[in-house]
Write a structure and sequence with these properties.
The complex is a heterodimer of chains A (320) and B (808).
Chain A (H helix, E strand, L loop, with lengths): L3 H14 L8 H33 L28 H15 L3 E2 L8 H4 L34 H13 L4 E10 L11 E11 L4 H16 L5 E5 L5 E10 L11 E10 L1 H6 L8 E8 L1 H7 L13 H4 L5
Parallel strand pairs in A: 1-2
Antiparallel strand pairs in A: 2-3, 3-7, 4-5, 5-6, 6-7
Chain B lengths: L1 E3 H5 L9 H11 L3 E7 L6 E11 L6 E6 L15 E5 L9 E5 L19 E4 L3 E4 L1 E2 L28 H4 L5 E6 L13 H11 L8 H4 L14 E4 L6 E9 L10 H8 L7 H13 L3 E5 H8 L5 E6 L5 E3 L5 E3 L5 E5 L2 E5 L3 E2 L12 E7 L2 H11 L4 H6 L8 H11 L4 E8 L9 E5 H8 L5 H10 L3 E5 L2 E5 L10 H12 L18 H14 L4 E2 L5 E2 L1 H7 L19 E2 L4 H13 L4 E10 L15 E10 L6 H14 L5 E4 L9 E11 L2 E9 L1 H6 L7 E6 H7 L16 E9 L5 H12 L3 E10 L7 E10 L7 H12 L3
Parallel strand pairs in B: 11-14, 25-28
Antiparallel strand pairs in B: 1-10, 2-10, 3-4, 3-6, 4-5, 6-9, 7-8, 12-20, 12-21, 13-20, 14-17, 15-16, 17-18, 18-19, 22-24, 23-24, 26-27, 28-29, 29-33, 30-31, 31-32, 32-33, 34-36, 35-36
Helix pairs in contact in B: 6-7, 7-11, 12-14, 15-20
Classes of the chains: A alpha+beta (320), B alpha+beta (808).
Chain lengths: 320, 808
């Protein structure tokens, strides 16, 4: 087998061949060029393989069990001063802690799902234009990186249905990463985080839902808040609402502005049915809202793209 | 969707309620109002004027005009007759015409609400003529694109000096910018009639739709000589109504009319009276209409009399549209055909071959409804986003096609005479009846409505309600295609009465147990960040090149078929490559030494699918340590790994590296498998030189990755660390053991531990040293040990040290 140096020399010679193309009759040039390209590709592949082999030989094994290199210094942790937790994760932890204190179990949403969980189980009619509103990504196999944490509703309801039989309520919050096929700019990301809430019992009401949501945001912002709603449309809730809070004082609110926080509604009977829960005996409500927005507001971030940038200049601002 | 507030309010009782309050109520109970465009003063100081005289100025296109503004304007110079002088460049200016004059001090309407509003004044023109204000063209007045001349006003409507806001009744308007998305299921609200009905309901007023809408009656007899056949597939086209017209006047209106101002306020442009009438019908009733040239239609189809066939397009068929583009049709498209020859892309756009033109005589008017599913696909496939298809894709009710077609006949009566009406539906279907109980309503909403209240709320928007005790029977009007089940009715009751009027009541609840996985992640976060590492988040999608760089096979990655860019085409198989990818930028930004980590899900294909046939993912922690200096970072990465696992009390071992489909980037000779018992829970190691070069990273970068679910299980095997402290004095000694270079450190450490077993001790390695030219290495330790139950004697200590020093 040729040595690495020989291969490299050959490649060099081949390079010189290219200069001959222009001296050839026009009808032969293409073919000649093609042949050269094929040879060149072969050589490059051989060189890469030879390099990899050479490197492999060069690499000295290390003692995986040792605390340090021979004659090396004992390793030290980095200074704690600049270590940081991701602000989105810190916030998500807060959100989770509040929901837990309110009696909600926590389940994490999946990051790759199917049409059934994303749409069918949620009462989206087959081929319904409402599906388009979610700008979903799809894989070759037809799987979907979910566009909303509602993709977990069917699973959460099924997994907790036994509680209803025990006379208890289903109360679960589902944070997770979701994806939408949209162009990224300062206020839009194709990857972001949501938190879903699901509550089912024999007699829970829309009034209960409004109270729970208000309680959550009052705990989150540490103050009393005014709330209001707007009609919404989601195939998986009926009625469907958008939930707004009065801009909290901590965000500079002076009782003059409203913030759209999430979409919510009473769970559609078909969604309960699809999870094996009898909608004539039980009723429930569900909601889902973005986490990124909470962070943007809290830290007054001007550009959502920082969150997934892994830029230390940004992250070190959140040093513990 | 843009809605004229004045048009909306006509027919409503809105005295005593401010526009602001009204908009707020609409927002709270119907749909999000994205904005209100205030045009209240847009047409201030613009008057109807009569052109008294008009003299062309030689060598220019200008005319020197005297106009009679009825004395309306101030700040102008008038001649002895009280007329005002204004220059006009429009070719159509003529004596005695009524024009719209933008008086000095007025804002030119087309610049109103823009960043640079243009206020007109007096200009000296050609160096000698004072010209006050201007006579406006349709474009300047913001009633269209027409720039060919100035607008002419109908003398039977307007008189000199009358403000044009008054001529056209209500130009002092506010335009509501409606967020369509939350009305996806409400086709009825895409016309003023339906939107107004909702507002009436919200205001607690009874809305009554006009009789002609509820029970359309044909007020002309079909001319027997006029023949038309219609064939439809009811799945694709539930109803097709057509009227054949003949012209009775030229399709031209010399005057600016009220319809043009309504169209302009909805963001549309006037074209000609017949087209304008179809568009007004659409804005008013949400029903798009289309007009075909009868003669062209017949000719294209080659039939004697028109034969309309509505069907799915065939693969390979093409159609030239009105706008001149030719589209390749697919089988999801619906086409209107003339005797099977496509002449229009249903719901989207008419075809060029049957377009109305100035020679058009007879007209076929189409008033139909189509499958919204198909039209949605048509919209996406051909990128057509017209006002018409926006409405059709909401699923316009079949119940109104005939009524609106007849209404059009009335509206266009000046220009067209209806000859015959044809309809695929000959009888009205029975309306939907929904039965539910009052207690069902109140228990879902948390309210206490009486039967009478519910009846009142629903009947205001034209449901018919029968109350018998707790039982309700609700008849649904035909335009409410969104109502199917009792919950839909409950929503109407809650929404129209105001969800915000429902008292929030907190249900009783206990606290819940923490989720172990989240609790674990929080602990990891606290641990690593307190040791200077930085948590990051990176995309779940990666470039094929990134996988190639780290040696992962693209076949092991789910591929996104509609990705935004090649950079986001594959679902990642592990986290470490993403971290490597983000490291170079941070080095460049001046961070010389850092540790990045991320906890997230990964979905390599080799994990397979679960019982639901959904891909299985894995919660993973990825960690990299980068040092610009380029030395090996294996041992620092190991220190992080060990301290993390020890903090959970997990006993782990580092064993020979095990290559798999995903961990292709580790240098096998300088990497290890992380094991708990027999189970591999992760990997640690240096990244291969070739991989690092691909990322432009310095040598020696080390990484580890752990499967978080495995840490959860192993959290139970607590006991890796000995927290005991002896009550007896402990002995402090340094120990150096000399061995051959290839002897594994761990074998020595475990021998030391074996000697110290039974004692309470601390062991800390202090150095590994190999002098130049010497064939052995020295392993040095600092030890502290004590017996749990007594003070060690000198002899005992010396015995222990002898044992330790004899370790090989």
């Amino acid at each position: 087998m040729a040595t690495l140096q020989e291969l490299k020399n050959e490649l060099k010679k081949l390079g010189a061949e290219y200069a001959k193309i222009k001296d050839l009759p026009a009808d032969q040039r293409a073919d000649f060029g093609k042949q050269l390209n094929i040879k060149k590709q072969q050589l490059n592949a051989e060189i890469a393989a030879a390099e990899a082999a050479a490197e492999q030989e060069d690499v000295a094994p290390l003692d995986i069990s040792a605390p340090c290199d021979i004659n090396g210094q004992m390793p030290e942790f980095l200074t704690a001063d600049f270590g940081s937790k991701h602000p989105l994760m810190t916030e998500l932890d807060r959100v989770i802690a509040i929901y837990q204190s309110m009696g909600f179990d926590i389940a994490e949403s999946v990051q790759l799902d199917d049409e059934y969980h994303m749409f069918d189980s949620l009462n989206f009619a087959k081929g319904h234009p409402a599906r388009d509103g979610y700008d979903t990504f799809r894989t070759e196999e037809g799987f979907i990186p979910p566009a909303h944490t509602s993709t977990m509703q069917n699973r959460v309801l099924k997994a907790n249905a036994y509680k209803l039989a025990e006379g208890k309520a289903i109360a679960v919050a589902v944070p997770g990463r979701v994806y939408r096929n949209e162009d990224v700019d300062a206020t839009h990301e194709h990857t972001f985080y949501q938190c879903e809430g699901v509550y089912v019992s024999e007699d829970c009401t829309l009034g209960n839902m409004l109270a729970i949501l208000r309680e959550f945001f009052e705990k989150y912002y540490g103050q009393k808040l005014n709330i209001k709603t707007q009609p919404g449309y989601f195939p998986f809730t009926e009625p469907s609402l958008e939930f707004l809070i009065e801009k909290p004082k901590s965000l500079g609110g002076k009782g003059d502005g409203w913030l759209e926080m999430l979409g919510c509604g009473m769970i559609h009977p078909n969604v309960l049915k699809n999870a094996g829960i009898d909608p004539t005996k039980y009723q429930g409500f569900a909601w889902g809202g973005g986490i990124d927005r909470l962070i943007m507001l809290r830290y007054q971030l001007n550009d959502i793209r920082y969150l997934e940038s892994a830029k230390l200049d940004f992250l070190k601002e959140f040093a513990c | 969707m843009l809605i004229s507030l004045n048009w909306l309010k006509s027919g409503l009782e809105t005295n005593g309620i401010s526009d602001e309050e009204l908009v707020k109520l609409i927002g709270a109970r119907l749909v999000e109002v994205e904005g209100v465009i205030d045009q209240t003063h847009k047409y201030d100081k613009i008057y109807a004027v009569q052109v008294i005289s008009e003299e062309p100025i030689e060598g220019t296109h200008l005319h020197l005009c005297k106009i009679d503004d009825g004395g309306a304007a101030s700040d102008v110079e008038r001649d002895e007759n009280g007329y005002v002088q204004v220059m006009c460049g429009a070719p159509n200016v003529h004596k005695d015409m009524l024009a719209a004059w933008v008086a000095p001090g007025a804002i030119v309407p087309s610049t109103y609400n823009t960043d640079e509003p243009f206020k007109i004044g007096m200009r000296k023109m050609l160096g000698k003529y004072d010209s006050y204000g201007m006579m406006g063209g349709a474009d300047e007045l913001d009633f269209g694109d027409d720039h060919s001349g100035i607008v002419e006003l109908d003398p039977s409507w307007a008189k000199p000096g009358q403000p044009i806001a008054e001529v056209f009744r209500n130009l002092d308007d506010k335009i509501l910018d409606i967020e369509n998305k939350s009305l996806t299921h409400r086709p009825d609200t895409f016309g003023i009639l339906g939107f107004r009905r909702e507002v009436a309901g919200i205001l607690g007023q009874k809305h009554i739709s006009p009789d002609w809408y509820l029970e359309p009656e044909q007020n002309f007899k079909n001319d027997d000589k006029v023949k038309l056949e219609i064939e439809t597939d009811p799945e694709l086209c539930p109803r097709y109504t057509a009227i054949v017209f003949e012209p009775i006047a030229e399709n031209v209106n010399p005057y600016l009319d009220y319809d043009a101002t309504l169209l302009a306020r909805a963001g549309m442009r006037p074209i000609n009276p017949i087209v304008d009438a179809t568009n007004i019908m659409m804005l008013a009733f949400g029903q798009p209409l289309h007009a075909f040239d009868y003669d062209k239609f017949v000719k294209v189809g080659g039939s004697k009399t028109p034969k309309i066939i509505v069907r799915a397009a065939k693969e390979g068929e093409t159609l030239e549209l009105l706008d001149g583009t030719t589209v390749e049709l697919n089988t999801d498209d619906i086409v209107i055909t003339s005797n099977d020859v496509p002449v229009a892309l249903a719901g989207a756009m008419g075809g060029a071959s049957t377009a109305i033109d100035e020679k058009t005589k007879r007209v076929i008017l189409e008033s139909a409804t189509f499958s919204l599913y198909n039209l949605r696909k048509t919209q996406m496939a051909h990128g057509i986003f017209s006002e018409a298809i926006t409405r059709f894709t909401k699923g316009q009710p079949a119940g109104q096609t005939k009524a609106v077609a007849l209404r059009f006949a009335k509206k266009a009566g000046k220009y067209l005479k209806p000859l015959a009406l044809f309809d695929t539906q000959t009888s009205e279907p029975k309306p939907l009846k929904i039965e539910l109980s009052l207690s069902q309503i109140n228990s879902l909403l948390g309210t206490d409505f009486s039967g009478d209240t519910v009846k009142y709320i629903l009947e205001n928007v034209e449901f018919k309600v029968k109350v018998e005790g707790d039982e309700l029977a609700v008849i649904v009007p035909f335009w409410r295609t969104d109502i199917h089940i009792p919950e839909d009715i409950i929503e109407e009751v809650g929404r129209l009465s105001g969800f915000d009027n429902i008292a929030p009541v907190l249900p009783l609840h206990a606290t819940a147990d923490p989720n172990p996985l989240f609790a674990l992640k929080t602990q990891i976060r606290n641990h690593l960040s307190a040791r200077g590492a930085n948590e990051v988040l990176t995309y779940s999608f990666v470039h094929g090149d990134l996988m190639a760089k780290v040696g992962q096979k693209p076949e092991n990655s789910y591929k996104i078929i509609n990705s935004i860019s090649p950079e986001l085409q594959h679902i990642r198989q592990s986290i470490v490559p993403s971290l490597l990818d983000k490291s170079y930028g941070n080095l460049r930004a001046g961070h010389e030494k850092f540790a990045l980590y991320e906890m997230n899900q990964v979905y390599p294909k080799n994990l397979g699918v679960d019982n639901d046939k959904v891909p299985v993912g894995s919660h993973q922690l990825g960690f990299v340590f980068i040092d610009q200096a380029g030395q090996s970072n294996y041992y620092i990465a190991k220190k992080y790994l060990a301290s993390l696992l020890e903090s959970f009390g997990i006993k782990f071992e580092l064993a020979t590296f095990e290559a798999n489909a995903v961990n292709t980037y580790y240098e096998p000779k300088r990497s290890a498998a992380v094991k708990v018992g027999d189970q591999t829970i992760g990997f640690i190691g240096e990244i291969q030189g070739k991989v690092l070069r691909g990322f432009k990273l310095p040598r020696g970068v080390a990484a580890f990755e752990l499967n978080l679910a495995d840490l959860l299980i192993d959290e139970q095997s607590v006991g890796a660390r000995d927290y005991r402290v002896s009550n007896y004095p402990s002995v402090s000694r340094d120990l150096t053991i000399t061995v051959a270079p290839e002897v594994e450190y761990a074998s020595i450490e475990s021998k030391i531990r074996a000697v110290l077993d039974g004692f309470i001790y601390k062991l800390r390695p202090t150095s590994i040293y190999q002098a130049e030219g010497v064939s052995t290495k020295n392993l040095s330790f600092h030890l502290e040990f004590a017996a749990p139950d007594k003070t060690l004697t000198k002899a005992e200590i010396s015995d222990i040290m002898d044992k330790l020093e004899s370790i090989k």
